[in-house]
Write a structure and sequence with these properties.
Layout (H helix, E strand, L loop, with lengths): L6 E6 L3 H13 L2 E6 L2 H9 L8 E5 H4 L3 H11 L5 E5 L4 H10 L3 E4 L4 H11 L30 H13 L6 E4 L6 H10 L8 E5 L5 H9 E2 L11 E2 L1 H4 L4 E5 L6 H13 L1 E2 L8 E2 L3 E6 L3 H6 L5 H7 L3 E3 L10 H13 L8 E2 L1 H8 L6 H15 L4 E2 L5 H7 L25 H15 L4 H8 L3 H11 L6
Parallel strand pairs: 1-2, 1-3, 3-4, 4-5, 6-13, 6-14, 7-10, 10-13, 15-16
Antiparallel strand pairs: 8-9, 11-12
Helix pairs in contact: 2-4, 4-5, 11-13, 14-16
Keywords: Activator, ATP-binding, Cytoplasm, DNA-binding, Nitrogen fixation, Nucleotide-binding, Phosphoprotein, Repressor, Transcription, Transcription regulation, Two-component regulatory system
Pfam families: AAA_lid_14, HTH_8, Response_reg, Sigma54_activat
GO cellular component, one term: cytoplasm
């Protein structure tokens, strides 16, 4: 948060259980809540000059129903620069698109993920609405969950992807490391889909914003009366994922005692719900995500050595988007294709100048941020292609940039920084890397398109020092 004083959010909702949940999650992020049951009461509060002004507003679509967009417009007129979050139970992006066009800053889908709510709240106040081009969104774009969805030709990314495809066939616990937004959850889903467990369930446990006791209950389940507030029995994610895979997001957020317990479960396959007199055996593959690999986290004292040992150095590191700049253009086109397939949106192109702008930015939020920025730009674009004008906040940050180079455009650079031609060996290596990335690592197709045999291709990979996953 920017300061130590809790920020005020005005929540327009009337569901008591939902209000309690949002209040608890927001409180952990340093926000305090004021709840009103209808839009008219909220508008009066915004107009009252004697009342404390909220720093953000959240509207439950259930309150206004079909009049949600009209109410959002009234909120926007009353508080032009206040971040406005729209909460909806609809799985279709159409209502979210209409809400954004009416003036919503962001939207959240029910049930609310704790990480998503905290991310939305903290990001909502970092920029004024007039210049908030980088506001995060949670568009739910469905796609086939396989490795073909993982777009990129940069060597560090292709190496990580090849390792993921290899480990998908195994059963050992796996840690996927990387910055937020690099695609760790997507890779986990692809690994599960390509694994022998693909017919079994995949459960995902988001730990961000959860209290330690809540994490343990969510993981192991609990019996009725196991602790204050446990009014009914609940099965845990380990039991729900039996026969399949369980992804634990942000492994480093588990408290030390729970880390020891999880390590023991990984070793023995035995789990026991809170307050239970019995235990049960589970057959679950653990796919965990974290900011760093297990060895580094153990050295930093973030996770217990016994849990780090459970992963036995079995980890994959996903590179940040700033470290795979050559992938920004193909990722952009891929996201635009997915976004254009959503109800209420269109397929749009993008100019070279706009692509150069996207490539010039550092993307601290990685793939998640790139997708969010493109989604927002498409929502408000009335042309057939996105231009620099559709990314004003980026233009202010990146500044004036030159024309795109061949490498940035997805081609091959012929000249080096000194103005002289690069060696034939360097150019050939770039062409092969480009082909491997373009054809998603399908080596038979790569060889066919390059007009050479597979054996010749693998010999060249060896001679040029190229990882066959690159």
């Amino acid at each position: 948060m920017v300061d130590d004083e809790p920020r005020l959010m005005l929540l327009v909702a009337d569901d008591a259980s939902q209000i309690r949940q949002i209040n608890a999650l927001a409180g952990r992020a340093g926000w305090r809540m004021r709840t009103v049951p209808d839009g008219e009461t909220a508008l009066r509060m915004l107009d009252d000059t004697s009342d404390e002004k909220p720093q953000a507003l959240m509207l439950d679509s259930w309150i206004a129903g079909d009049e949600s967009c009209r109410l959002i417009g009234r909120f926007r007129a009353a508080a032009p620069e206040m971040p406005l979050l729209f909460l909806t139970g609809s799985t279709s992006p159409l209502l979210a698109v209409e809400a954004m066009r009416a003036g919503a800053t962001d939207y959240l889908m029910k049930p609310i993920a704790s990480e998503r709510l905290i991310y939305a709240l903290e990001s909502s106040v970092q920029h004024a609405l007039a210049s908030d081009e980088l506001a995060p969104l949670t568009e739910k774009i469905e796609a086939t969950l396989d490795f073909d969805l993982m777009i990129g030709s940069s060597p560090n990314f292709r190496t990580a992807l090849a390792r993921a495809a290899k480990t998908a066939r195994g059963h050992s616990p796996l840690l996927i490391a990387g910055e937020p937004g690099t695609g760790k959850e997507l890779l986990s889903r692809a690994i599960h889909s390509a694994s022998p467990r693909s017919r079994g369930p995949l459960r995902i446990l988001h730990t961000t914003g959860m209290a330690p006791a809540a994490i343990e209950s969510a993981l192991y389940g609990h019996e009725r009366g196991a602790f204050p507030g446990a009014f009914e029995q609940r099965t845990g994610a380990l039991q729900d994922a039996d026969g399949g895979s369980l992804m634990i997001d942000d492994l480093e957020r588990l408290p030390p005692a729970l880390q020891h317990r999880l390590a023991d479960t990984i070793m023995t396959g035995i789990a026991k719900p809170l307050g239970a007199a019995h235990s049960f055996r589970v057959d679950v593959r653990i796919l965990a995500t974290a900011g760093h690999d297990a060895h580094t986290l153990a050295q930093q004292g973030v996770i217990e050595p016994v849990l780090a040992e459970s992963f036995n150095s079995n980890s994959i590191s996903l590179p940040a988007l700033r470290d795979r700049q050559v992938d920004v253009a193909p990722l952009t086109r891929h996201f635009l294709k997915l976004i254009g397939e959503q109800p209420g949106l269109r397929h749009l192109g993008i100019t070279d100048d706009a692509l150069a702008l996207l490539e010039g930015y550092g993307w601290p939020g990685n793939l998640r941020q790139l997708q969010a920025v493109l989604f927002r730009a498409v929502v408000f674009c009335d042309r057939d292609a996105l231009t620099e004008a559709d990314f004003p906040q980026l233009a202010n940050i990146v500044g004036e940039i030159g024309p795109r180079t061949a490498a940035a455009a997805g081609g091959v650079t012929l000249f080096g920084p000194d103005g002289h031609l690069r060696s034939l060996e360097e150019i050939e290596a770039d062409v092969i890397r480009l082909a491997i990335g373009h054809y998603r690592g399908r080596m038979s197709e790569v060889a066919r398109r390059l007009g050479i045999g597979r054996s010749t291709l693998y010999r060249k990979l060896s001679d040029l020092g190229i990882d066959n996953a690159a």
